[in-house]
Amino acid sequence: MPVARPAELSSPLRAVDVPAATEAAQAFLRALGVDTSAPGLERTAERMAHAYAELFRAEPVTLTTFPNDEGYDEVVLARGIPFRSVCEHHLLPFMGVAHVGYLPGARIIGLSKLARVVEHLSARPQVQERLTGQVARVIDEELQPQGVGVVLDAEHLCMSVRGVRATGATTRTSAMLGRMRSDARTRAEFLALTGAGAA
Ligand SMILES: Nc1nc2c(ncn2[C@@H]2O[C@H](COP(=O)(O)OP(=O)(O)OP(=O)(O)O)[C@@H](O)[C@H]2O)c(=O)[nH]1
Ligand SMILES: [Zn+2]
């Protein structure tokens, strides 16, 4: 039976207007003192518009699930999923890896879908904490497993190339739902499998 799609899988962004974004980027660059007619920069504003449009382009995702016929009752973990998103404060990228796991109930999910959820929810202005929670909630709603665990480890360019310039510093966030949250053994097993260490 089809399950209602979680609201979070609908992108909050409106359609991209590339000409308007290009014009705005042109004005933005000029205001920053950049000569946009200099050789090599004539098309920079347009490239900026396309680059951000690409960062915000969310591919539709359908979370295919299958009956758990084997009765598999251990943690399933997709580890080291590379992702990139954009911080909503500075519109600079943050990127790293996601570890997404669940403890199956009646159904299992196509493994690629765990990475697709991360990719989909990354394609909007984000903060890492919200992205982490959204990934966990979408999988929980769609699959209704016994538990979900998500760990994100990311470098924020707004923190490494500007501002405090803490180059190499990474931020780790986690979201645990169901038995991954309430059952210490399951939680510890999940964290051990991710390599994120004990809780
Ligand atoms: N919690 C959280 N903070 C973030 C994330 N991405 C960026 N930030 C932070 O958002 C904060 C915005 O702080 P502000 O003081 O308004 O901005 P700012 O003057 O540019 O701050 P600095 O980066 O310290 O120079 C900064 O501390 C960023 O490091 C995120 O995903 N989660
Ligand atoms: Zn930022």
TrEMBL record:
Domain GTP cyclohydrolase I: residue ranges: 22-193
Positions annotated to bind Zn(2+): 87, 90, 158
InterPro entries, A to Z: GTP-CH-I_C/QueF, GTP-CH-I_N, GTP_CycHdrlase_I, GTP_CycHdrlase_I_CS, GTP_CycHdrlase_I_dom
Keyword Acyltransferase: no
Pathway: Cofactor biosynthesis; 7,8-dihydroneopterin triphosphate biosynthesis; 7,8-dihydroneopterin triphosphate from GTP: step 1/1
Record's catalysed reaction(s): GTP + H2O = 7,8-dihydroneopterin 3'-triphosphate + formate + H(+)
EC number, as in UniProt: 3.5.4.16
Keywords from the UniProt entry: GTP-binding, Hydrolase, Metal-binding, Nucleotide-binding, One-carbon metabolism, Zinc
Enzyme class: hydrolase
GO terms, molecular function: GTP cyclohydrolase I activity
Family: Belongs to the GTP cyclohydrolase I family.
Assembly behavior: Homopolymer.
Protein's name according to its UniProt entry: GTP cyclohydrolase 1
Gene from which the chain derives: folE
